[in-house]
Amino acid sequence: MDSSELYHVKQQFILGAYKPLISLALPPESSPDYVPTLVYQARAHLALNDPSAALSLLPTDSEDVTIKATSSLAHYIAAATPPSDENSEAAEAALEELRDLIVEIEGDDLEASERDKWLVRVLAGTAFARSGEVEEALETLGLNEDNRASVEAVALIVQIFLSINRPDLARREYEKCKKWAEDDLLLQLIESTINLVTGKEGYSDCNSFYTEQLANPSLSSTKLLTARGVTRLLRGEVSEAKSDLEEAISQGGADGETVAAYAVAATLRPSKKGEGDEWWSKLTQEFPNHPLVNDVSEKAGLFDEAAAKFNVPSLPTVTV
């Protein structure tokens, strides 16, 4: 059973309170909480797209499989962001390291807990999913295994299915997970994420979950603020959505998701002239590979293609 300190660290990571988590002092190296806390902090850096900070935390000579897997994931993200032919060799090398670790944890000689082994699978599955190897990611995460015992693995499987527009499969995994998992925080987050994507009951369930978590005085999460802002935006509560998103940005949470959501909100209900264009420009310049930017660019290209095929007839002339 986790200590209260480690439970709080885990809670912060699950709910996206990455910056407060990073600022926590590490426990003594002799503490059983040391390695798990170190790994959570490194993963928080990775969630903030800062692999160099994660690598600076992790010892290079450790034999702990969770530290090695986290390090390999950090090397992959560093090499794959932004993608380039020059970095592709380093990215593939990091993926091979993770594949080797999967083989290692499946052997009989490794002394590691089942929880640590599952964490290695989650970290490897994250890298495989990011690299576009969806089938390998799902296999690594134990899709269709009857003895799966990691809610975090289920959470990642759900995210993968949602990313390929299969909310039906995502909900199926969630319903299966409820049969063996405790009703913990991550399970509630999985349900809220599915409801946010599908719009179940007018987004009321996910909105209530985000509001409940944001009421926790010991938690400060820009991710939760953004999630509730998006939920309110989908419910048509544009002013309330802008308020959440502005607060997230003021707390240093101006990531791609928050900026994209605010650009939409500012377009729907601008507080000043040109606000929507200003935030759209910010999104395209700072996050050019964001899915919303790619989607709009693709649709603009299709419109131009269709317009080029349309011949505008000449205006009739009137003779007197």
Notes on the protein architecture:
The chain is mainly alpha-helical and 320 residues long. The protein has a domain at 201-296: Alpha Horseshoe (Serine Threonine Protein Phosphatase 5, Tetratricopeptide repeat). The chain contains 17 helices and no strands. α7 (114-130) runs parallel beside α9 (151-163), α12 (204-214) runs antiparallel to α13 (222-234) and α13 packs parallel to α15.
Which CATH class of the domain at 201-296 is shown? Mainly Alpha
Major sheet summary line: none
Secondary structure tally, helices: 17
* Percent range for β-strand residues: under 5%
- Low-pLDDT segments, ≥5 res: none
Counting DSSP E segments of at least 2 residues, the number of strands comes to 0
- Supply the helix-strand structural class: mainly alpha
Broad shape:
globular
> Radius of gyration in whole Å, from Cα?
22 Å
Q: Please bin the fraction of helical residues.
A: 55-70%
What is the CATH topology assignment of the domain at 201-296? Answer: Serine Threonine Protein Phosphatase 5, Tetratricopeptide repeat
Please state the oligomeric state of the protein chains shown.
single chain
H and E order:
HHHHHHHHHHHHHHHHH
Give the averaged pLDDT, no decimals: 92
